[in-house]
Task: structure prediction
Amino acid sequence: MLKKDNWILGVALGILLPLVVYGIVFFAMNKWGRIDSTLNLYFIKESTMQLAGVFANMFIFRYYMVNLKYDKTGRGILLSTFFYAGVFVYLHVL
Result:
């Protein structure tokens, strides 16, 4: 199912993987990374957890573009990565 050269698959992968990675990092920080439980202070800032999710797209992008040579799927992943990066810049920088 994941071995198709389809841009819709790339967009779906590019949207879902950052959410999964962010969820894993967020729950790990809730379990083991709290500095202060009353103030919800973590070892890793919230924005860094979000960037870790977006950064995870790099690995699947490289896999689909270099190893499998699926250009359309890679473009879909890149499109969703640009979307997440734009949302991040809008929320945290501007």
